[in-house]
Design brief:
about 280 residues, 8 strands, alpha/beta, 8-stranded mixed β-sheet, single chain, about 15% strand
């Protein structure tokens, strides 16, 4: 692990990664996180479902990139608390020699980083402690493991809606993509209020009252993250519509392609290729 120091975990206020962990039925959260999560569920009953579909999108995207596009290097920014199967397991199941770097600034992720580092002997799995608002530091540290002269898939999953425009959300993603070689990919999902504006905007206020920034974006705004990239089919779509048929068979506890009548999941998702 690089860029790390002894973690200091603040349990006096909720943290977005720990709230997300609670939505995924994880155990690495605190009462203050559960309280905020339950407030969100009272406003938006689909919040837990959205978190699950977002996770399944990551599984599908990484599996497709490794299996169909031959990607063997992955940089996961905003890793979050380890939840099986982690990204490196998906990538290394496809190709054991895959190299994966996780990056996050949450002390509780650092505390659990050992779980992230259990990869294959043929590949490499590394964790760097760095803030997404400092993409240059992420790139510098990741460069000790990944070869930026070859294609890399950068995943930014359910992260940028915690970064406001004025804090450089679009510039962060551009910096990461600009550092990539041609043939690299951006995997991104982002909250939107377009399907249920009242519930999502109430969630924004509830997160804000808990001290957490939440910025839903329109489809056009999410599309800006992919400027200059070629979107893979089916393009920029609700997260549950991105190659949903890949889940048939129920791999890794996913939904097995079952019918889902909960309505659109309020996150957009896409995978873009750098020409």
């Amino acid at each position: 692990m690089t860029g790390t120091e002894r973690p200091v975990i603040d349990t006096s206020k909720p943290h977005s990664a720990r709230v997300y962990d609670w939505f995924l039925d994880g155990k690495d959260n605190y009462p203050v996180d559960e309280e905020l999560a339950r407030q969100i569920l009272a406003i938006e009953p689909q919040a837990k479902r959205s978190a699950q579909h977002n996770r399944w999108f990551m599984h599908r995207a990484i599996r497709r990139l490794g299996r169909d596009m031959g990607v063997r290097q992955f940089l996961d920014v905003g890793t979050g608390i380890p939840t099986e199967p982690n990204l490196h397991r998906i990538a290394q199941d496809v190709a054991p020699a895959s190299r994966v770097v996780y990056a996050d600034n949450d002390p509780i992720v650092l505390a659990h980083a050992a779980a992230l580092l259990r990869g294959t002997s043929e590949g490499a799995t590394e964790y760097v402690q760095a803030d997404v608002r400092d993409p240059e530091a992420i790139l510098q540290q990741a460069g000790t493991v990944l070869d930026f002269g070859r294609p890399i898939a950068v995943s930014v999953i359910a992260l940028m809606h915690f970064i406001a425009d004025e804090d450089g959300a679009f510039e962060v993603v551009k910096t990461l993509v600009d550092a990539l070689a041609p043939g690299s990919f951006l995997v991104l999902s982002q909250l939107t209020a377009e399907f249920n504006p009242e519930a999502v905007n109430r969630s924004v206020r509830t997160y804000g009252a808990g001290g957490v920034t939440l910025v839903p974006r329109s489809r056009a705004e999410v599309g800006r993250f992919f400027d200059g990239l070629e979107l893979l089919e089916p393009g920029l779509v609700p997260v549950d519509e991105w190659h949903r048929s890949d889940d048939e068979g129920g791999e890794d506890g996913e939904d097995g392609g079952r019918a889902d009548s909960g309505g659109p999941v309020p996150l957009y998702a896409a995978v873009g290729r750098k020409p």
